[in-house]
Design brief:
alpha/beta, 5-stranded antiparallel sheet, flat, transmembrane
């Protein structure tokens, strides 16, 4: 069987979601709160419905309420699944109306073909899957941290396996037979642990009747003793009540003595308060006198009131600054004289260099330019080579004359060879000679033309050079004249002397400018110094003049003036501080006096505003103490009279000693114990008398009750014998049935343990292949290191989870027993697995997925990556988004 498709229209947080599963391994991935658990409960609810009702005592919400839709009104959806036979079915369920419809592959409604339950509707899942909801939950439905099989689930699985193994069908139910016999035994007889069944009720009634009979006989014997006992108890009760009155009087005396002590304690406290009040009244008077003296000092130095306590330090600082400023003024004046003397000397020396004032500002640059230009012109003049050009002209003229001569000779030879051609027989020879001589003539003519052109060019260049020479001579003369004029004005002979003298002039001018700048800066500093001195004097004269230490028109400030100001302000501030302190003390004294009056008011419940009120209350306390002593004397006499004993009675003296004991707690405890003991005795007597009176009053009825009890006892004994016979028969049948069930369980246990060992060995990589489950599905394994059989708590948490998972899978395979191969639904089963366990278990699931569908829920990337590596392209991943 496999689940093909889920259509979740409204279920918990999921709304309108369609999920399609493949035949093999399906990995449903989603973060926490993505809805993985909701999908699992949807599958379970679609197959077996959801349980409703009220919340449990622990506050757990039933699934039907828990998964009601967050959005929309429709609560339900559909599921499509296919059986191993190939038959496909679609189930639609509405959880709001508790309605379900089952359709076959042709969409025929086949809902009525299944057995129905009032709560769950058609039981199609039980018929198609072959297991009920309890077996489904404890085999193929493996929830988060829920691989272990509990006791109730184990019992359910054992019964199902036993039915299938013995009969081939779970329709014939050993469980039902066992439950029917047990129900009959309980309903018609009862068991050792039952309390409300027929046999229990008969035994209970017999015991009750026997007890009543014994009580009646005892009562009958006691009736005669009860009357005499009542008389004695009545006399004893009267004596105890008189003594209780005496103890109550003693308690009043102790209470009065406590009141006396409380009043005395209040009196002592009041006396202390009065003494404290007198002390602070005297202190207030002393503080008032000191305040008047301080006010006199304050008035004497009232002129200092506008100044703060840091003004003496400030005026000291101002005086020190004034002295420093006067010293600075003297230094600046001396510096001014020195600068003026140096400026005069430089101005006198500049008279020697007054010629430089007429020059332009860049005259030294002009001189340097002229010198450079003269040197360049002289070098240029030297570089012009007219002689070489003349020699070139001569050589070209000589060459032209030679060519002219050659042309004449060749012309004559050409003419002669032409004439000889006409007169001699060697015409060819002379024709060739004529041609050669004519060609040479043409060559010489061409050469002559080239030489003539070169001669003309040389003549032209010579004329240009001669013109340039003339220009250079004129420019050189002009520049030499200008530089001689500058040297003459400056009174120097050459350029070096000019530059030296010009540098000395510029240095003196620069120094003069620096001195004038220093003089300006010095005058600014002197002005600032003068203003600073005036400002300090103004500040100091304001304070000293205001306090009458110096006249406002007086200009000189002395250290004595500053000292007088400092001392006067210190006295004024001291007077202010003393006044503040004295006022605070007066206020504190007044507050403390008021607190004394408030405390007295709180303690004594009266209003006190002055010392006279306290004295009046003290007199009232004396009167109250006398009244309390009079009452104590009165109650003491009543106690003595109540006893009626002489003064030598030990009981009386012990009581009076306790009454007048200084420890009130001890005396009260003693009296309370006596009263408690006495009241207990009186109560016991009253209770005992009431019982005896009831016994005496019902004595005439006892005989009739005894006879009635005898008749009822005989009837119940006969009923008991009948029920015991029925119970013996039912127990015999139940024992036979249990023995048969045990034999059946022992038959399927080897198959289950074989599957368990095979699966456990695979996922633990052969380490734990010898694993067994007992009748209660408690797992034990053969520990490979020690070869000991150990229980699971002694193994690691990851190994325990693996073995429990192996048991769940083995149970599923055993429960199926040739029926439908059910899909495994697994939720976060790798929580305690390390990476090695995850891979080994996934490899086992890979082999298992070849035969059955697996739906694996996880929120961890580790499982996603491992499954991708193990299953490859066969992995079907379904991702749930965050809802």
């Amino acid at each position: 069987m496999r689940i093909d498709k889920l259509d979740i229209r409204g279920f918990g947080k999921i709304h309108n979601l369609i999920i399609e599963f493949s035949k093999g391994f399906n990995l449903v991935y989603g973060e926490n709160e993505a809805g993985k658990t909701t999908v699992q409960w949807f599958i379970r609810g679609m197959l077996y419905s959801l349980k409703g009702g009220k919340n449990t005592k622990g506050g757990a919400i039933p699934p039907l309420k828990k998964y009601s839709p967050w959005k929309g009104d429709f609560y339900g959806g559909s599921i499509v699944y296919t059986l191993d036979s190939g038959a496909s079915f679609t189930v639609e369920r509405d959880f709001n109306n508790n309605t379900v419809k089952i359709f076959d592959s042709f969409f025929n409604d086949i809902s009525d073909s299944f057995k129905k339950s009032k709560e769950k509707g058609p039981l199609f899942a039980v018929e198609h899957l072959g297991i009920n909801e309890a077996c489904f939950e404890r085999t193929v439905f493996i929830g988060q941290m829920d691989t272990k099989v509990d006791a109730s689930g184990g019992r359910e699985l054992v019964d199902k396996l036993a039915n299938i193994r013995e009969t081939g069908s779970e329709e014939v139910s050993l469980k039902k037979a066992r439950e029917a016999l047990k129900d009959s035994l309980i309903n018609y007889v009862g068991t050792d642990r039952s309390t409300t069944r027929p046999l229990d009720m008969v035994n209970l009634k017999l015991a009750e009747l026997e007890g009543k009979k014994k009580e009646l006989f005892k009562e009958k014997e006691k009736i005669f003793e009860a009357e005499e006992k009542l008389r004695k108890l009545s006399e004893q009760k009267n004596r105890y009540e008189k003594k209780r009155e005496v103890f109550n009087l003693a308690r009043k005396v102790i209470e009065l003595r406590k009141n006396v002590e409380e009043v005395k304690k209040k009196k002592r406290e009041l006396v202390l308060i009065i003494k404290e009040a007198e002390k602070y009244e005297q202190e207030r008077e002393t503080l008032s006198q000191q305040t008047e003296l301080c006010n006199g000092v304050k008035k004497q130095y009232e002129a200092y009131s506008k100044y703060a306590k840091d003004d003496p330090g400030l005026i000291n600082i101002l005086y020190n600054k004034l002295e420093d400023a006067l010293k600075e003024k003297e230094r600046l004046c001396k510096k001014q004289e020195t600068l003026m003397q140096e400026i005069g000397e430089i101005e006198r020396s500049l008279e020697e260099y007054k010629a430089f004032r007429s020059f332009e500002e860049d005259v030294d640059g002009r001189v340097q330019n002229l010198s450079g230009s003269i040197k360049e012109l002289e070098q240029k003049k030297r570089d012009v080579n007219v002689t070489a050009l003349d020699e070139s002209v001569k050589a070209a003229s000589y060459k032209l004359g030679f060519i002219k001569v050659g042309i004449g000779i060749l012309a004559i030879l050409t003419l002669l060879s032409g004439i000889c051609t006409s007169f001699f027989r060697q015409k060819a020879v002379f024709a060739v000679l004529t041609f050669v001589f004519a060609l040479l003539t043409l060559v010489f003519v061409y050469m002559g033309k080239a030489v003539r052109d070169n001669l003309q060019r040389l003549d032209h260049n010579r004329n240009i050079l001669l013109s340039e020479m003339r220009d250079i001579d004129r420019e050189l003369s002009a520049k030499q004249e200008e530089i001689r004029r500058i040297f003459s004005v400056a009174g120097v002979e050459n350029e070096g002397e000019f530059i030296k003298k010009k540098t000395l002039y510029e240095n003196k001018v620069l120094r003069l400018a620096e001195l004038n700048g220093s003089m300006d800066e010095l005058e600014r500093e002197m002005d600032e110094n003068r203003i600073y001195i005036e400002k300090i004097k103004t500040l100091m004269l304001d304070r000293l003049g205001t306090c009458g230490i110096i006249a406002l028109e007086e200009n000189e400030i002395k250290s004595e003036h500053v000292k007088t100001f400092r001392e006067g302000l210190a006295k004024y501030l001291e007077a202010i501080e003393n006044l503040k302190r004295l006022n605070e003390k007066r206020e504190d004294a007044a507050k403390y006096l008021q607190s004394l009056y408030d405390r007295a008011s709180s303690l004594f419940g009266e209003s006190f505003a002055k010392k006279e009120d306290l004295l009046r209350s003290l007199d009232g306390m004396d009167l109250k103490i006398n009244e309390l002593y009079e009452k104590i004397e009165k109650y003491s006499m009543e106690i003595q009279n109540s006893y009626g004993f002489t003064d030598n009675s030990p009981e009386y003296h012990e009581l009076m000693e306790k009454i007048y004991d200084a420890e009130f707690q001890s005396a009260e405890s003693y009296i309370e114990n006596l009263l408690s003991e006495l009241n207990g005795r009186i109560d016991e007597i009253v209770l005992e008398m009431s019982r005896d009176w009831a016994l005496v009053e019902r004595g005439c009825l006892i005989e009739n009750e005894i006879q009635e009890l005898e008749v009822k006892t005989a009837e119940l004994e006969r009923e008991k014998e009948r029920l015991l016979d029925i119970g013996k028969s039912l127990k015999t049948a139940l024992d036979v049935l249990e023995e048969a069930a045990l034999e059946i369980k022992r038959e399927f246990a080897p198959l289950l343990n074989q599957k368990l060992g095979s699966i456990a060995g695979f996922i633990t990589q052969g380490k734990y292949s010898e694993v067994r489950a007992d009748d209660s599905f408690m797992i034990r394994a053969l520990e490979p290191g020690t070869r000991r059989i150990v229980e699971l708590p002694f193994l690691s948490g990851g190994t325990v989870e693996q073995l429990y998972l192996a048991l769940r899978i083995a149970l599923a395979e055993t429960v199926e027993d040739g029926g439908e191969v059910l899909p495994l639904i697994m939720d976060e089963v790798f929580a305690h697995y390390d990476d090695t366990r995850v891979f080994s278990t996934l490899k086992m699931l890979f082999e298992l997925s070849k035969e059955r569908q697996i739906i694996f829920f996880t929120c961890k990337d580790r499982e996603m990556e491992a499954a991708t590596e193990v299953f490859g392209k066969d992995l079907n991943v379904i991702k749930l988004g965050t809802c």
